[in-house]
Amino acid sequence: MNSIVETIRIGLLRSGLELKQFLRQRESVVFTLFFPVILLFIFGTVFKDTIAPGVTFSQYFVAGMIASGLVNTGFQQLAITIPMERDDGTLKRLRGTPMSVSSYFIGKALLVTFLMIIQTALLLFFGSVVFDLNLPTQASLWWNFTWLVLLGSACSTILGIAFSIVPKSGRGASAVVSPIVIILQFFSGVFFVFTSLPSWMQQFAALFPLKWLTQGMRSVFLPDDFATQEVAGSWEIGKTALVLVIWLLLGLIFAIKKFKWSRE
């Protein structure tokens, strides 16, 4: 019991340090927190069409950008920064401290959650003010939104940590990770209406969490009758939760078994 408490305590301390280090990197702050807002301004200004009764493209796009933000803030950022920390010796030095792998994971997870809360708040604020985004009015929708953000953040964080072992170096991590994220964004209905994509893209995207996150977010921000325009004709909330949990468990198992403090 004491060891669990100590692990959590060290993880909390690590999360504070992670946040301080992040805030010192101005480029990362701007790119991580404001890039989704910039995309919202661009796409919301260019595409003003109504894609369904009572549903503007901006309304559809915000749902996708919140889901995509989870992937960018969690998976992409960690899968790039951890190899860099491994190369510059940061992880090797941490290995010589009382910090366990679990504490390190907790620190990263809390950082991602904090950043995602800010990023989502910015998207909702600017979406409401500039593009007349209709926010959910039912408590059940806000509940769905909350667990989607928390579960999506956890899943994205763990998968980012697990995938960080793939890049051979910190210098080449961005070249490996970024194209994967961009492809999944296009295939998962972030930038386009999902059902307008070729069926093979839809089937491929359904293998990965981002498709289910975007669909889950659409269930929060779009009218109930829009569910009939989904591939299955419904929001599939239960299936969304199941897919995210499966990916979370798979990523956790892989991360624990394969995570390395150094290249040796």
Question: What are the SSEs and their pairings?
Answer:
Elements (H helix, E strand, L loop, with lengths): L1 H22 L2 H21 L3 E3 L2 E2 H31 L2 H6 L5 H31 L7 H25 L9 H15 L11 H7 L3 H13 L15 H22 L6
Describe this structure in words.
By secondary structure, this protein is an all-alpha fold. The chain has one domain (2-258). 73% of the residues lie in helices and 2% in strands. The protein contains ten helices and two strands. The chain has a two-stranded antiparallel sheet with strand order 1-2. The longest helix is centred in the first third of the chain and has 31 residues, at 57-87. The mean pLDDT is 86.
Number of helices: 10
Number of domains: 1
Integer average pLDDT: 86
**N-to-C SSE string, H for helix and E for strand:** HHEEHHHHHHHH
Low-pLDDT ranges: none
Distance between the termini: 32 Å
Structural class: mainly alpha
Give a count of the beta strands, DSSP E runs of length 2 or more: 2
Instruction: Tell me the fraction of residues in β-strands, as a range.
Output: under 5%
What is the rounded Rg?
Answer: 19 Å
Q: Summarize the main sheet.
A: 2 strands, antiparallel
Query: What does the overall shape look like?
Result: globular
Helix content: over 70%
Strand order across the largest sheet: 1-2
Domain ABC transmembrane type-2: 27-262
InterPro entries: ABC2_TM, ABC2_TM_bact-type, ABC_2_transport, Nod_factor_ABC_transporter
GO molecular function, one term: ABC-type transporter activity
GO biological process, one term: response to antibiotic
